[in-house]
Amino acid sequence: MEVLISPRNNPKLNAIYEKAFKEATELYLATAFLTSWSWKSKVQLNGRCKKFLAVIGTSFGLTRKNACSDFLNWLPSKPNMHLKAYPAKPGRTFHPKMLAWKDADGKCWLLVGSSNLTSGAMNENVEMNTFSEIKEMQYNAIVSWMTNCSSESQPITKQWVENYKEADLKNYKSVNIEEEQEEVFDFKIPNPDDYKDVLEYRRCQCKHFAEQKEYILNLLEDCSSGKMTNEKFWESFCDIWNNRSDDNNRFRFQGSGVERSCTSSNNWSEITTVLLDIINNHSNDSIDDMDAFVSKSIDSLKESGNRARGAWFSEMLCQFFPERYPVHNDPVDEWIRDIGWKPTSGLSEGQTYIELAIRMRDVVRQNRSFVNNIAEIDHVIWKICHDKKELTQSIADA
User: pLDDT, tens digit, for every residue of 108-121?
Assistant: First the structure.
C-alpha cells in the first residue's frame, strides 16, 4: 500500500487518475462533491474501457455546474458510461472519495482517502490518500456498493445541470448547512387520491399478466426457435393481448395504436429472440449492465428495421420488469413535453429509452408512498393525458 501525503504527493495523486483513465477496462469513481474536472484536456478515457460509473454528491450545492458540464463533455456517450448525481437527503450526505478500476490484465486497483475532485484537493490542500492493488473479492464489493449508489442517483445531463442549484460560495458562510439540496427534477404526482381507482386497475392488469406469463414465454420461445411462424405468433399473441371484453383477463397496457406499426409480417423471430435473451440471460445483471444491454438491443433492432422495437417491445419490458422499464408511447411523450423534460440530444434510440427508464425510476422513488413501480406510474400518466384531452375537448365544444 502506498500512502500519499498532500500537498507533497499531489503530482503522484494526479498521475494515478491519469493511469486509471489510460488503462482501465472498467472504472468506478465516487466523490462527495465535484468543483473541477482538470482532465478534460489532459487525458481521454481509453477505448478499451467498457464500464464507467461516476457518482457525485450534491449536498449543500457545493458541486459546481461548470465541472459537471466539463465532465459530461469529457465522458464518451456510450452504453455503460454513466455520470450520476446522488440526491441530497435529510440526515444523509454522500461523502466518499474513491477511485477503483480493473486493468486489461485483470488486476484491481483502489485509490481512497480524503481528496474530493476539487482543484484544491488535487493541488494544494493538506490531504491523505492510500493507493494499492486489491483482491478481486474486494473490488467486487466496491462494484456492488457503487451499483447500489447508482440505483439511487440521477443521471447528469445538460438539463440536469441547468436545473441544479449550486451554492453561492461568496456568501456561503451565511448558508444554513443543514438545508439539503432540493430535487433537481421534481416529479411529485399531484393529488394521489385521484388515482386510487387507476392504480387498482393497473395492479389487476399486472396480476393477470403474471397468470399468463408462462404461456407468453412459451409463445416467445416457439417463435424464437422457429417452431412457430411470424404470422402464427402474432395471431396467437393477439388472441390474448387484444382481449378487451373480459376485464378479468385483460393485461394489455396500451390502446390499439400498436397495430399500425406491428403486423404479422414483422420479424417476430428476431425480436422475440432479443426479448428472451434479456429475460433469460440479463435479468440478474446489475441495473446498469442490464440497461446497457437493453440499449444495444434496441439500437440493433432499429438497424434491422424491426418496427416492433418501440411500443410493443417497451410494453413487454414493462410487463416483465415493471420496476425497471417503462412503456414508450404517445401518452408518455406527451407527458414528457408537458412537464418540460428535455431528452438529451445526440443519444441513440436505445440510450434515449434508457434515459427515460432512469427518469421513471426517479418518479417512482419520489412517489413511493402511493406507487410501487413504473407500470403503475405509466397508468397515472395515461390518466393525466386522458383528462387533459377531455378538458381540451369540452372547452372546444363550449
Answer: 999 999 988 888 88
